[in-house]
Amino acid sequence: MASSASMCRTTYLHALASPARRANLGKAYIRLLRITSRCSRCYSVQTISKQDTRKQRVVILGSGWAGYSFARTLDPSKFDRIVISPRGYFVFTPLLASTSVGTLEFRAVLEPVRRLPGGVRFYQGWADDVDFSQKVIRVEANAVGGLPSEVLSSTVPVKPEAKKGDIFNVGYDKLVIAVGAYSQTFGIPGVRDHAHFLRDVGDARRIRLRVLSLFEQCSYPTSQGSSSTHVAEGSLSEADKRSLLHFVIVGGGPTGIEFAAELHDLIHEDLKRLYPELMPLVRITVYDIAPKVLPMFDQALAQYAMDTFARQGIQVRTKHHLERVRIADGVLGSAHGGLSIKIKEYSEEVNAGLVVWSTGLMQNPFVEHLVGKEFAIAQDKDFQKGEDAQRHRLVKDPKTGGILTDAYLRARITDSATSQPPPDAAGDTPKPVMSDVFVIGDCAVNENDRSLPKTAQVAAQQAGYLAKHLNKATQDGSLGAVDVSSTWKPFKFRNWGTLTYLGGWKAIHQSSADELRGWVAWVVWRGAYLTRSMSLRNKMMVPVYWFVSWVFGRDISRF
Amino acid sequence: MASSASMCRTTYLHALASPARRANLGKAYIRLLRITSRCSRCYSVQTISKQDTRKQRVVILGSGWAGYSFARTLDPSKFDRIVISPRGYFVFTPLLASTSVGTLEFRAVLEPVRRLPGGVRFYQGWADDVDFSQKVIRVEANAVGGLPSEVLSSTVPVKPEAKKGDIFNVGYDKLVIAVGAYSQTFGIPGVRDHAHFLRDVGDARRIRLRVLSLFEQCSYPTSQGSSSTHVAEGSLSEADKRSLLHFVIVGGGPTGIEFAAELHDLIHEDLKRLYPELMPLVRITVYDIAPKVLPMFDQALAQYAMDTFARQGIQVRTKHHLERVRIADGVLGSAHGGLSIKIKEYSEEVNAGLVVWSTGLMQNPFVEHLVGKEFAIAQDKDFQKGEDAQRHRLVKDPKTGGILTDAYLRARITDSATSQPPPDAAGDTPKPVMSDVFVIGDCAVNENDRSLPKTAQVAAQQAGYLAKHLNKATQDGSLGAVDVSSTWKPFKFRNWGTLTYLGGWKAIHQSSADELRGWVAWVVWRGAYLTRSMSLRNKMMVPVYWFVSWVFGRDISRF
């Protein structure tokens, strides 16, 4: 990319590809076209002249923990990295809850894909389909239109069907599918329309605006039922305000618990000073269907979390089942966006001003599409001979619907009695795989360890494993398939431990080695995030924001 | 407010105002109601018991340079400050252009009204009407609904007529009208719908998203007119991209010039590295109807600005008249939001991806309403005797439509043959005024100096003048009218000089004492902003952002 920058400002390549020259160039033009198609107009002359030893083109679908971490680790001197994702940035999700209340600014948890060191080609769009036999991905553009935060909600589905972007094709040598998962709403009515998710920075922004707007709405004079024109007269009764200032979180996993904790901090460290009269009306409730929240923690630590929440006045209701979310009746719902939620265990509905949904994942529709389709693959001998090739399918994990991979994270494909297994799948594991298609992150299921949780940790470790092995394997820049079985060790997940923030400068931390709780765990929590996969910019800005929020309070402006 | 915080968490006042007690309290209840109405439920018991010596209630309409600066300077130990504004923050407008390209983050130029030191009561809403005889303001709430940046555009009108908020009344002892002005589009078709303004932080956010989105849209493969499925095939031709990457600014005042300069910096310092292939297609053009841009600067400095722009490749077209803005034809307009603008001097339309409108102000509809209505005032003797009082009107400045004030910034009212002038207007200036209604900022016209420009400097000086004089006048906290004529000096504007940034670390500065240009002026430009009316938080954050943008580049994530 460094050389391409200087190249592209010249008209050299331009002139080569101009219609006038095309006719004269003949075969050379066809070759040129094939190369320019690989990275549009921005391929350097250097690369063109060294076509035989050109770098392999690795296309990465997704810019989450799996896709971004992989792209970040893959050596740009050995591979051309092409990232395709509907959003142009990676979100450092463990700090997303902090941004939803303004402890951190949104941009402090974002890393733009285009800023990856070493140069990267990025197309903002949704992968629509993959032609595994031609090694081409069909992409629908997503840079057009209005505010991306409105378009790119992580509600299901994220792709607004009304707005169809341009369609274009991108070819690959190796493909890494890391498209993640969507929020699962279990078909509960109203969740998709009225609840807030907390998976992307757009979600965090909407939650922040909503929380601050609710306090602003409730700061107007209370309805007194009197008719004096001299009295400031609002439309909301105190009961209405109590409804609007009820913050409901559904799901007692780390995301839900951390959001509740951060919200509590916002309210008690900042809003208390600005809206003192509203404090008696505020409530935070966490509902979960399980008998215990934070299932990944020991009983003792989970109990410590519950005790901390109890002291902070955050209600935790386990074994409670949400059945419906709807707009509340009357002015509360129509003018103030108040919600009514039906809990199975309660006879009456509960009112709330905000419902945050933080439980459940479902497969991305793109993954559902991929596992459903038949294809021939280029490595098949029949296919290469030009005969009718054997048809395959990706292997779908029956439980989760994800794409099954072998121990080296390659996509498994169905075999057939009449076809030979693909050449590189010989040896110890005769199960057929695609040697040039890898699947990592939430959409992947490792056939050797199907119980791996869908967490950032697993995704990041898979990404690191794959990128490092590819970096090592391709010393010569050859285009051939990687000889996995002889040099790669199977992927193995190592649990680095789990951290959850509980509010009031307290946290819990659990790993195989130790357990921490209270402010010690809080220090570990903050320290851990500073050493994680962040750019230097954000390593600098996160502490600055922490300091500024601590000294001056969180910013409450809405725009 | 400090004491009210502790009070409101008790149920004392609550209990007093509960329906059960109301019946028993009789007259005491009426009095209580009158007081609680003054600041809803949050008035401290202390204040209630000292009712006779309670602080004067100063209601400030607006949170711009005039309103916010006034509220900031007014002594909270002597006055109860109540701010009513459709937005909850003050915008440090001179740095707004910097936020629209990401040199600074949005929040670095915002000061939340509720964070004013000393406590302030704030109602987010539009002043709808003022009853000058009863001294009551009717307010329409504006905290309800979706994203305020979508609602609170500074396009004209800012108030979305579809969404009617709650209406409530707020009483005042003194009123400061500082509602500012709206953007004037001179009725040019399409400006209101398709151009971007740059007056609020929501405008800056939309411009930032649009600029980055345009580069993203143009980064897709170019349409080749070929049908090969292997070639990445986009829908935009190179000419289309050239159209979308044409950035048009209408208005060559400091705002327009600074936006062009900041945009140039963004493109040449950051986007050049990320989208090198698009650089030959980018153009920035400033159109102005006047023969010369930056009319407040000397010819030499304005020429220096033009020379700087010419070197940077920014086109400046003076004596050019915009006649229409419309959505461009074809896919360029329908799918990519491209615009076509008609310039009177050109035979053909010019395409653009973004049009920023930065010229002209018009009166706020609220001001138009106020100057049109008749009212009686409480100070009139007839009125106090209960008889039919003399009717007055605010005096409208015929040229600008603003509210005329006397030299002490009090609202001038029309006199009548049969009425006595209000008591405090006697003496040297027999022209009638309202002694308790002040008008400052863009909506005010000083009858002693009608040529004062509508700038932040004038607004801030008027605000400071008024607040300091009121602080001095009210030593005893009495409710009586201020004896202006004996102790106040007439307001006089002092020109502190003008600064404009030109891009590439160059600026121009002009004051009565000196003229500066180049990087020296740039240093003055940056230094000046750090010493201006900002909170400590932003005095800290602005240099941090400058540093981070300089080292790491501006952030390009859109959300």
First-last Cα distance of chain A = 37 Å
Number of domains of chain A: 3
* Spatial arrangement of strands, main beta sheet of chain A: 7-6-5-2-1-8-22-21
Percent strand of chain A equals 15-25%
Largest sheet of chain A: 8 strands, mixed
- Provide a count of the helices of chain A: 20
Q: Can you give the mean pLDDT of chain A?
A: 81
CATH superfamily of the largest domain in chain A: FAD/NAD(P)-binding domain
Oligomer: homodimer
Q: Assign the CATH topology of the largest domain in chain A.
A: FAD/NAD(P)-binding domain
pLDDT < 50 runs, ≥5 residues of chain A: 1-52, 145-162, 226-232, 417-427
Q: Give the second-level CATH assignment, the architecture of the largest domain in chain A.
A: 3-Layer(bba) Sandwich
Shape assignment of chain A: globular
Rg for CA atoms of chain A = 26 Å
Largest interface: A-B, 92 and 91 residues
State the name of the first-level CATH class of the largest domain in chain A.
Answer: Alpha Beta
Total strands of chain A: 26
Category by helix and strand content of chain A: alpha/beta
Protein name (chains A, B): NADH dehydrogenase
Family (chains A, B): Belongs to the NADH dehydrogenase family.
InterPro entries (chains A, B): FAD/NAD-bd_sf, FAD/NAD-binding_dom, NDH-2, NDH2-like_C
Keywords (chains A, B): FAD, Flavoprotein, NAD, Oxidoreductase
